Amino acid sequence: MTVQNSLIQIQHDGSSMPAYVARPDPASGPHPAVIIFQEIFGVNKEVKRICDLVASAGYVALAPNYYHRTDPDLNEPYTPEGLDRGFAVAGQVTRDSLRKDTMASCDWLSAQDFVKTGKVATWGFCFGGTVAFLSATLPGIAGAACFYGGQIASPMPSGEPEALADAKDLRCPILLAFGGKDDWITMEHVERIRKTLDEAGKVFEIQVYPTEGHAFFRGSSDHIGGSDHSQVVADAWSLVQVFFKKVFA
Length: 249
What we know:
CATH superfamily: Alpha/Beta hydrolase fold, catalytic domain
Helix content: 25-40%
Number of helices: 6
Strand order of the largest sheet: 1-2-4-3-5-6-7-8
CATH architecture: 3-Layer(aba) Sandwich
Number of strands: 8
Shape: globular
CATH topology: Rossmann fold
Low-confidence stretches: 221-227
Protein backbone atom coordinates (compact mmCIF):
# COMPACT_ATOMS: atom_id res chain seq x y z
CA MET A 1 0.00 0.00 0.00
CA THR A 2 1.28 3.47 -0.90
CA VAL A 3 2.14 5.54 2.20
CA GLN A 4 2.33 9.30 2.46
CA ASN A 5 4.09 10.98 5.38
CA SER A 6 4.74 14.49 6.60
CA LEU A 7 5.72 16.60 9.59
CA ILE A 8 3.05 18.83 11.11
CA GLN A 9 2.60 21.17 14.07
CA ILE A 10 -0.36 20.95 16.44
CA GLN A 11 -1.02 24.17 18.32
CA HIS A 12 -2.19 23.50 21.85
CA ASP A 13 -1.57 24.28 25.53
CA GLY A 14 0.43 27.38 24.66
CA SER A 15 2.94 25.44 22.59
CA SER A 16 3.49 24.08 19.10
CA MET A 17 3.62 20.27 19.29
CA PRO A 18 5.53 18.66 16.42
CA ALA A 19 4.12 15.40 15.09
CA TYR A 20 4.85 12.91 12.34
CA VAL A 21 1.94 11.68 10.23
CA ALA A 22 1.87 8.66 7.94
CA ARG A 23 -1.23 7.56 6.07
CA PRO A 24 -2.36 5.37 3.21
CA ASP A 25 -3.15 6.79 -0.18
CA PRO A 26 -5.83 9.47 0.48
CA ALA A 27 -8.02 8.03 -2.26
CA SER A 28 -8.50 4.89 -0.16
CA GLY A 29 -9.79 6.65 3.00
CA PRO A 30 -11.08 7.50 5.43
CA HIS A 31 -9.22 5.19 7.81
CA PRO A 32 -9.06 4.50 11.56
CA ALA A 33 -6.11 6.17 13.28
CA VAL A 34 -3.41 5.03 15.68
CA ILE A 35 -1.47 7.45 17.87
CA ILE A 36 2.12 6.19 18.20
CA PHE A 37 3.89 7.06 21.44
CA GLN A 38 7.66 7.33 21.19
CA GLU A 39 10.32 5.56 23.17
CA ILE A 40 12.12 7.73 25.68
CA PHE A 41 14.66 8.83 23.03
CA GLY A 42 12.38 11.15 21.02
CA VAL A 43 10.38 11.05 17.78
CA ASN A 44 13.27 9.53 15.87
CA LYS A 45 13.80 7.41 12.77
CA GLU A 46 12.49 4.33 14.58
CA VAL A 47 9.22 5.99 15.61
CA LYS A 48 8.69 7.24 12.08
CA ARG A 49 9.39 3.74 10.74
CA ILE A 50 6.67 2.32 12.98
CA CYS A 51 4.24 5.01 11.79
CA ASP A 52 4.98 4.03 8.20
CA LEU A 53 4.48 0.35 9.10
CA VAL A 54 1.10 1.13 10.65
CA ALA A 55 0.09 3.20 7.63
CA SER A 56 1.06 0.31 5.35
CA ALA A 57 -1.53 -1.78 7.21
CA GLY A 58 -4.29 0.70 6.35
CA TYR A 59 -4.32 3.11 9.30
CA VAL A 60 -3.47 6.76 9.77
CA ALA A 61 -0.52 6.97 12.18
CA LEU A 62 0.29 10.07 14.22
CA ALA A 63 3.37 10.36 16.47
CA PRO A 64 3.07 13.46 18.68
CA ASN A 65 6.17 14.81 20.39
CA TYR A 66 5.22 14.99 24.06
CA TYR A 67 8.56 16.67 24.84
CA HIS A 68 7.45 19.75 22.93
CA ARG A 69 7.32 22.03 25.99
CA THR A 70 11.01 21.60 26.83
CA ASP A 71 12.87 19.54 24.19
CA PRO A 72 10.97 19.45 20.87
CA ASP A 73 14.07 18.41 18.91
CA LEU A 74 15.22 15.60 21.19
CA ASN A 75 16.69 12.72 19.19
CA GLU A 76 18.98 10.68 21.42
CA PRO A 77 21.07 7.68 20.33
CA TYR A 78 20.46 4.21 21.75
CA THR A 79 23.35 4.50 24.19
CA PRO A 80 23.60 4.73 28.00
CA GLU A 81 24.16 8.47 27.63
CA GLY A 82 21.15 8.82 25.35
CA LEU A 83 19.06 6.84 27.80
CA ASP A 84 20.11 9.11 30.68
CA ARG A 85 19.27 12.21 28.65
CA GLY A 86 15.93 10.71 27.63
CA PHE A 87 15.01 9.94 31.22
CA ALA A 88 15.94 13.48 32.28
CA VAL A 89 13.63 14.97 29.65
CA ALA A 90 10.86 12.44 30.36
CA GLY A 91 11.07 13.50 34.00
CA GLN A 92 9.63 16.85 32.97
CA VAL A 93 6.40 15.46 31.56
CA THR A 94 3.47 14.58 33.80
CA ARG A 95 0.28 12.56 33.66
CA ASP A 96 -1.59 15.80 33.07
CA SER A 97 0.60 16.96 30.18
CA LEU A 98 0.57 13.50 28.57
CA ARG A 99 -3.21 13.37 28.73
CA LYS A 100 -3.49 16.87 27.28
CA ASP A 101 -1.17 15.94 24.41
CA THR A 102 -3.12 12.76 23.73
CA MET A 103 -6.43 14.62 23.63
CA ALA A 104 -4.92 17.29 21.36
CA SER A 105 -3.76 14.49 19.04
CA CYS A 106 -7.28 13.01 19.07
CA ASP A 107 -8.77 16.41 18.28
CA TRP A 108 -6.40 16.91 15.36
CA LEU A 109 -7.21 13.47 13.97
CA SER A 110 -10.94 14.04 14.39
CA ALA A 111 -10.68 17.19 12.29
CA GLN A 112 -9.14 15.36 9.31
CA ASP A 113 -11.44 14.08 6.59
CA PHE A 114 -9.13 11.09 6.00
CA VAL A 115 -9.75 9.76 9.54
CA LYS A 116 -12.84 7.71 10.41
CA THR A 117 -14.88 9.43 13.09
CA GLY A 118 -14.54 7.88 16.52
CA LYS A 119 -11.88 5.38 15.43
CA VAL A 120 -8.67 6.21 17.33
CA ALA A 121 -6.39 3.79 19.18
CA THR A 122 -2.88 4.08 20.62
CA TRP A 123 0.34 2.08 20.50
CA GLY A 124 3.41 2.90 22.58
CA PHE A 125 6.89 1.57 23.25
CA CYS A 126 9.07 1.71 26.37
CA PHE A 127 8.07 4.98 28.10
CA GLY A 128 5.55 5.34 25.28
CA GLY A 129 4.07 2.00 26.32
CA THR A 130 3.35 3.60 29.68
CA VAL A 131 1.81 6.61 27.93
CA ALA A 132 -0.41 4.25 25.92
CA PHE A 133 -1.58 2.66 29.18
CA LEU A 134 -2.48 6.10 30.54
CA SER A 135 -4.23 6.98 27.27
CA ALA A 136 -6.68 4.14 27.93
CA THR A 137 -8.15 6.23 30.75
CA LEU A 138 -9.28 8.91 28.28
CA PRO A 139 -12.56 9.23 26.37
CA GLY A 140 -12.42 8.54 22.65
CA ILE A 141 -9.67 5.90 22.73
CA ALA A 142 -10.88 2.58 21.29
CA GLY A 143 -7.94 0.50 22.47
CA ALA A 144 -4.34 0.79 23.67
CA ALA A 145 -1.39 -1.45 22.78
CA CYS A 146 1.41 -1.16 25.34
CA PHE A 147 4.77 -2.65 24.40
CA TYR A 148 7.18 -3.06 27.34
CA GLY A 149 5.88 -0.02 29.20
CA GLY A 150 8.53 0.48 31.86
CA GLN A 151 6.52 2.71 34.17
CA ILE A 152 3.27 0.75 34.20
CA ALA A 153 4.42 -1.00 37.36
CA SER A 154 7.25 1.38 38.36
CA PRO A 155 7.24 5.09 39.25
CA MET A 156 7.07 7.62 36.41
CA PRO A 157 10.30 9.50 35.51
CA SER A 158 8.60 12.60 36.96
CA GLY A 159 8.37 10.85 40.34
CA GLU A 160 4.60 10.43 40.01
CA PRO A 161 3.12 7.03 40.93
CA GLU A 162 3.20 4.13 38.48
CA ALA A 163 0.58 4.11 35.73
CA LEU A 164 -0.98 0.99 37.25
CA ALA A 165 -2.31 3.23 40.01
CA ASP A 166 -4.87 4.40 37.43
CA ALA A 167 -5.99 0.87 36.49
CA LYS A 168 -9.51 1.40 37.84
CA ASP A 169 -9.96 4.29 35.38
CA LEU A 170 -9.22 2.31 32.19
CA ARG A 171 -12.03 2.81 29.65
CA CYS A 172 -11.01 0.51 26.77
CA PRO A 173 -9.36 -2.85 26.00
CA ILE A 174 -5.58 -2.96 26.31
CA LEU A 175 -2.92 -5.24 24.86
CA LEU A 176 0.34 -5.56 26.78
CA ALA A 177 3.48 -7.20 25.37
CA PHE A 178 6.67 -7.95 27.29
CA GLY A 179 9.96 -9.77 26.89
CA GLY A 180 10.58 -12.56 29.36
CA LYS A 181 14.26 -11.57 29.61
CA ASP A 182 13.63 -7.84 30.08
CA ASP A 183 16.11 -6.46 32.63
CA TRP A 184 13.85 -3.47 33.29
CA ILE A 185 10.46 -5.16 33.61
CA THR A 186 10.51 -8.37 35.62
CA MET A 187 7.97 -11.16 35.52
CA GLU A 188 6.98 -10.04 39.03
CA HIS A 189 6.00 -6.70 37.49
CA VAL A 190 4.05 -8.45 34.74
CA GLU A 191 2.18 -10.68 37.16
CA ARG A 192 1.30 -7.70 39.35
CA ILE A 193 -0.09 -5.94 36.28
CA ARG A 194 -2.12 -9.03 35.42
CA LYS A 195 -3.46 -9.37 38.97
CA THR A 196 -4.39 -5.68 39.25
CA LEU A 197 -6.23 -5.62 35.93
CA ASP A 198 -8.02 -8.87 36.77
CA GLU A 199 -9.18 -7.50 40.10
CA ALA A 200 -10.31 -4.27 38.44
CA GLY A 201 -12.38 -6.26 35.94
CA LYS A 202 -10.70 -4.73 32.89
CA VAL A 203 -10.56 -6.11 29.36
CA PHE A 204 -6.93 -6.91 28.59
CA GLU A 205 -4.51 -9.34 27.01
CA ILE A 206 -0.91 -9.95 28.09
CA GLN A 207 1.62 -11.55 25.75
CA VAL A 208 5.06 -12.50 27.08
CA TYR A 209 7.83 -13.59 24.70
CA PRO A 210 10.09 -15.71 26.92
CA THR A 211 13.25 -15.42 24.80
CA GLU A 212 13.11 -11.64 24.33
CA GLY A 213 14.56 -8.71 26.22
CA HIS A 214 13.46 -5.07 26.30
CA ALA A 215 12.64 -3.23 23.04
CA PHE A 216 12.33 -6.45 21.04
CA PHE A 217 10.16 -4.76 18.39
CA ARG A 218 12.76 -2.08 17.59
CA GLY A 219 13.86 -2.27 13.97
CA SER A 220 11.15 -4.82 13.30
CA SER A 221 10.87 -4.09 9.59
CA ASP A 222 14.38 -5.49 9.17
CA HIS A 223 13.69 -8.59 11.24
CA ILE A 224 10.46 -10.09 9.96
CA GLY A 225 11.19 -13.50 8.47
CA GLY A 226 14.05 -15.92 9.02
CA SER A 227 15.26 -16.22 12.61
CA ASP A 228 13.72 -17.03 15.96
CA HIS A 229 13.69 -13.31 16.80
CA SER A 230 12.07 -12.60 13.46
CA GLN A 231 9.29 -15.03 14.29
CA VAL A 232 8.65 -13.23 17.57
CA VAL A 233 8.52 -9.85 15.83
CA ALA A 234 6.19 -11.17 13.16
CA ASP A 235 3.93 -12.66 15.82
CA ALA A 236 3.86 -9.38 17.76
CA TRP A 237 3.00 -7.41 14.62
CA SER A 238 0.23 -9.88 13.80
CA LEU A 239 -1.06 -9.65 17.37
CA VAL A 240 -1.27 -5.87 17.17
CA GLN A 241 -3.08 -5.94 13.84
CA VAL A 242 -5.67 -8.41 15.19
CA PHE A 243 -6.09 -6.16 18.24
CA PHE A 244 -6.69 -3.05 16.14
CA LYS A 245 -9.20 -4.83 13.92
CA LYS A 246 -11.07 -5.93 17.03
CA VAL A 247 -11.22 -2.54 18.74
CA PHE A 248 -12.11 -0.73 15.50
CA ALA A 249 -14.89 -3.20 14.59
